[in-house]
């Protein structure tokens, strides 16, 4: 049976980027469907009735939701090339731990940077740097979190890297000054075609966020 793969996505989403990269790594052809999150499509509401969020992967008519679960699903279904999780159960558990850490810890501080002002904004910057420093420890001297090639932790984090320009410009600070290893890692990831073609231009993200800030009355 021919595979039918569709992705409900929204271009600036770091969560959607994860799925785009995983599909590209595996060489899976798919239909990209852009969602308007202010006016969600009946398909999105039908496919993700619980969270009503993108990304949603629709594989042969069946939905899979939550980006890190989708990436693991992709790794299991298209298991003939480019493994995204390590093969040993302990290493797999560790990889899942750090993906969960990124999922639980990173988004809120980064959102505070562009969506709040004053003390909360400053706290967002500090918290984000603390988390990135912890991740630098995990990276150590490796090229990628996955070792010699990109794995699921790299895929979980790299979408945030495409927002760094926005955080730095709005927050008037340098992430590189605090976390140089993460910046070198991000540049390395971008040399992979699957990442380069899945991440939007950082300045386009910034322009988008400025529009959102205006709509929210922050600027
Ligand atoms: N934990 C989810 C987060 C997905 C998420 O936050 N998606 C946002 C876009 S970046 C969304 O669809 N928001 C719509 C809404 O909250 O109504 C995942 O990893 O897939």
From TrEMBL:
<dbReference type="InterPro" id="IPR045073">
    <property type="entry name" value="Omega/Tau-like"/>
</dbReference>
<dbReference type="InterPro" id="IPR036282">
    <property type="entry name" value="Glutathione-S-Trfase_C_sf"/>
</dbReference>
<comment type="similarity">
    <text>Belongs to the GST superfamily.</text>
</comment>
<dbReference type="InterPro" id="IPR004046">
    <property type="entry name" value="GST_C"/>
</dbReference>
<dbReference type="GO" id="GO:0005737">
    <property type="term" value="C:cytoplasm"/>
</dbReference>
<protein>
    <recommendedName>
        <fullName>glutathione transferase</fullName>
        <ecNumber>2.5.1.18</ecNumber>
    </recommendedName>
</protein>
<dbReference type="GO" id="GO:0006749">
    <property type="term" value="P:glutathione metabolic process"/>
</dbReference>
<dbReference type="InterPro" id="IPR010987">
    <property type="entry name" value="Glutathione-S-Trfase_C-like"/>
</dbReference>
<dbReference type="InterPro" id="IPR045074">
    <property type="entry name" value="GST_C_Tau"/>
</dbReference>
<dbReference type="Pfam" id="PF00043">
    <property type="entry name" value="GST_C"/>
</dbReference>
<dbReference type="InterPro" id="IPR004045">
    <property type="entry name" value="Glutathione_S-Trfase_N"/>
</dbReference>
<dbReference type="GO" id="GO:0004364">
    <property type="term" value="F:glutathione transferase activity"/>
</dbReference>
<feature type="domain" description="GST N-terminal">
    <location>
        <begin position="3"/>
        <end position="82"/>
    </location>
</feature>
<dbReference type="InterPro" id="IPR036249">
    <property type="entry name" value="Thioredoxin-like_sf"/>
</dbReference>
<dbReference type="InterPro" id="IPR040079">
    <property type="entry name" value="Glutathione_S-Trfase"/>
</dbReference>
<keyword id="KW-0808">Transferase</keyword>
<feature type="domain" description="GST C-terminal">
    <location>
        <begin position="88"/>
        <end position="208"/>
    </location>
</feature>
<dbReference type="Pfam" id="PF02798">
    <property type="entry name" value="GST_N"/>
</dbReference>
